[in-house]
Amino acid sequence: MNVVNLLSAELHNHPATAVANHHKRWNLHIRSMIYTDGVAAAAAAAGASFWRVGGSDASGLSLTGVRVAVCAVVPLWLAALWLCGAYGRHTVTLGVGRQRRLLSAAGLLAAAASASGLLVDSTLLYRREVVAVLLAAALTPLLRRLSLRLPGRIQAAARAPRRALLVGPGAAINDFIAQHRPGDLGPLSVAASFAVDSAEAEERALTAGPSWTALDSTPEMVRRADCDLVIALTGPELDGAALRRMSWRLREIGVDLALAPILTTVAAERIDVSVAGGLPLLHIRPPALSGPGRVLKDLTDRALALVLLLLLSPLLLVLAAVVRATSPGPALFRQKRVGLNGTQFTCFKFRTMVVNAEQLKAQLEHLNENRDGLLFKIRDDPRLTKVGAVLRRYSLDELPQLLNVLGGSMSLVGPRPPLPAEVARYNEEVWRRLYVKPGLTGLWQVSGRSSLSWAESVRLDLNYVENWSPALDATILLRTTTAVVRGTGAF
Question: What's 280-304 look like in SS3?
Fold first, then answer.
């Protein structure tokens, strides 16, 4: 028996030892969730009990009796959530169908309330129970979110991400790690990885913890890395038979198995699941590059830009005066940039450098910190004025771009507006950044700004182009405020 089989046999004989840690984390997580949901249901029952409702009641139940009956909503709400799978491990921690299960539990309990009201012929009881169910459905997600902000051991366990083990070909693992920065996976953290192709493993330089080889040793690797989830990246070595064997072994030790799609940058909202002859199929909808949504985005951008220009006009005048007073030259810097479908436009910014900055660029080429791409960035650029350094740190120099948004050449949210010299060197993949209007802010700004590498900047821009949605725009705008206040990555 080889080493791998010995390790697997040892793990099979002592499954409790192998998964004790993640079971402990899971139990704490569920206890926190049940306690929070119980508090939400109790608050809902109390609110419904003392809510004044009109109408007659033919059952003869006293108000006290009705209130006592409404209290049954508390255990019944928890039972309904459990029956609808709301406490399943993948549902709780990964949010798979979380809202759908919550609504299913509310519908189930509302149906039970209707049946009980009809059974005892009590309109008063029926109305209060329905109100309690609606309040519980509204308070549960709210209290869950608030509970994560409380101190304590249980709350800490609830906030702790699930530890995942990546399994797949070395090239696929490298690509997965490159596509997902720390924090991108939400409640997941990649604790370790191992390649199923040893030749690739010898050439890899992973940043996601230790790595191993040999597919049959997956359970042992789970134990050593203290993981409770295995993410499989498909490849020739991970065919249907191999995945089936892996799922059997993981099931014996209570560890989940998830399959990552080949297109790791596709947003979940673009994926639909259907079944054909018992075979699950993933349908990927094309990017929303045009249509009513984009028209609405353009109109909203222009309206918001107009409002912001009116509100910020005093600040803009002050900043313009400060720039003119502290260094020779105009307040505004005009530069040709490339926008939608390669169309050039004049981009406005407050001037942050000396007037001959472009002529000095060639002399500073050796200081460029972005040697892996097309950008020219120097952390302590000697061409910056004192006022310009402050404007750049807090992105105040970009406020005049609201004029570009109002004129329609830019958007509030989108990829970074590139220079014509950069676009001339784009390949087909990078050119897709120009399929939408460039933005005053974007994923690049809220994810590190100038500290990003060229590859990371391109990845974020393409991610935005492929997965645009109004919700994504709203999220980026909210995150922009925090990123600007921190001033990190801006130079």
Answer: EEEEECCCCCCCHHHHHHHHHHHHH
**Rounded Cα distance, 43 and 87, in Å:** 20
Residues 6+ apart with CB under 8 A from 260: 168, 176, 231, 232, 233, 234
Count of CB atoms within 10 A of residue 285's CB?
Answer: 11
- Can you tell me the distance from the alpha carbon of 92 to that of 33, in angstroms, rounded to the nearest whole number? 9
Contact between 192 and 256 under an 8 Å Cβ cutoff? The reply is no
| Mean pLDDT of the region 97-108 | 81
Candidates 264, 283, 281; CA nearest to 272 is 283
- More confident: 59 or 129: 129
pTM for the predicted model, two decimal places: 0.64
Do the beta carbons of residue 448 and residue 488 sit within 8 Å? Answer: yes
Q: For 300-348, what is each residue's pLDDT tens digit? A: 999 999 999 999 999 999 999 999 999 888 999 999 999 999 999 999 9
pLDDT of residue 266: 72
Rounded CA separation 476/446 (Å) = 7
Q: Please report, for residues 168, 267, 459, the alpha-carbon distance to residue 181 in angstroms, rounded to integers and kept in the order given.
A: 19, 15, 11
Tell me how crowded residue 58 is: count the other CB atoms within 10 A of its CB. 10
Distances (CA, A) of 92 to 30, 83, 117: 8, 14, 32
Task: Say what the pLDDT of residue 117 is.
Answer: 66
Backbone angles phi, psi at 163, to 5 degrees: -90, 125
Pairwise CA distance, residues 254 & 23, whole Å:
9
Answer yes or no: is pLDDT of 198 > 60: no
Q: How far apart are CA 148 and CA 155, in angstroms?
A: 6
Question: What is the distance between the alpha carbons of residues 166 and 264, in angstroms, rounded to a whole number?
Answer: 13
d(CA 251, CA 258): 12
d(CA 101, CA 281) in angstroms, rounded, equals 22
